[in-house]
Every structure is written in structure tokens, then in C-alpha cells.
Amino acid sequence: MTSFPGSPRLFKGALIGFDIANPIPKVIPFQYNPETLTRSLEPQMQGNDQAGSTVGLRLSGAAAESINIDIEMDATDQLEKGKDIAVNMGIYPQLSALEMLVYPASSMVIANTIMLAVGTIEIMPPPPKLTLFIWGQRRILPVNITSFSITEEAHDTNLNPIRAKVSLGMRVLTYSDLPITHPGYHLYLAHQVVKETMATLGTGTSLNNLLGTNIKLLS
Predict the structure, then answer these.
(1) CA gap 131, 143 in Å, rounded
(2) What's the pTM value of the predicted model, to 2 decimals?
(3) According to the model, what pLDDT value does residue 46 have?
(4) How would you list the strands of the sheet with 22-29, edge to edge?
């Protein structure tokens, strides 16, 4: 006999940060998956002002995509269970993990400060962390965080946040933005291949059935 499997396992969305100075990735799963996700796509067209030119009909690269989500965090469940981290710090550690995605590593800041102090003429700013936005198995995207706002809605007696909403704006990095040696280049290319496969499944194959007549739009 087989037992009822129960509810399916919920796939949690997440952000993952990769730091050159620290080989261990920072995995930040969402406590609750956002109910809505807003995506905007802007086609990248190659334009030309010459009269009669058809260059304007050419795509210069992948569409520029922006993603906006609101993440909710709440320590209530952990507080009821007496979890030490929640009791002592609320959700401050989780908020800090998200915030550090848009900060350079302090070790890099200190190293650059020392180099300036000893007279180094040119200092290279630290590169941003490679950040991945994961939304299901078919959407794993390299992104830059472009906007970040936190609304702390409740605090404990020590003023640690125990409930908050985080609004994130992200720009998806495509193969047009990254060198071929960057891992994000291949991640995005794989994402587009998956999207092309999904598009094939989501479209019809017979124009005749749609229009009810035998017609050729392209000769």
C-alpha cells in the first residue's frame, strides 16, 4: 500500500550572493514567497537614422528586463518557538544578509584605504557581488540590485526589527552585459534556451485553424 504523499514541497525563492573574497555563497531564501512579481522588458533595437534603412528592425541583444518584488519577513514563528537568534536579534541578521548584497566587503575597503595611504595612485573599486535571483527551477538569473528599501513594521523591546517588508528592484544581467568568461553569461544563455522551449510549448502550430482559411502571411 502507498500512503498519501501530502502537500507538495514548496519551492522557495531566494537570492544568492557570490563574493570573490569568500568562496562560500550567501544563500538567502525568502521566508515567504512574494505573492506578486512585476517584470518589465524593453526590446534592445539597433537604430539607424538613414532613410530607407532596415537596421532599425534588428535586435541588438536580449531584452532589458527589470524585476520588482516585495519580500515579507516576520520573526513571530521563531519567537513562539523560543529560537535564540530571533529572541536576541529578531530578523536583523536576515535583513543584514540582504543588505550586504549591495555593500563592498569591508576587507576590500580596508585594503584600498591602506593602498591610498601609502601613495598608490590608482585604486580599482571592488567589483559587485555576483547575485543570482532564483524563482523556481526554470528561472535562475544573474541580477544587479538597482533599488532597495526596507520598512521595519515592528520591533522588540531592544528595538530589534521583528517584522519588515523589503522592496527590491533588480536588473537582469544578460549575455550582452557580461564577458563570455563570466559565469552569469552562461546562466543567462541557459535561461533563454529554457524560455525558448517554454515558448514552443505555449504557442499554437496551425495558422489555418486560427483563421479558418488557408492563408500565407509570409511568402
Answers:
(1) 6
(2) 0.81
(3) 77
(4) 22-29, 14-19, 130-134, 140-155, 161-172, 58-74, 37-46
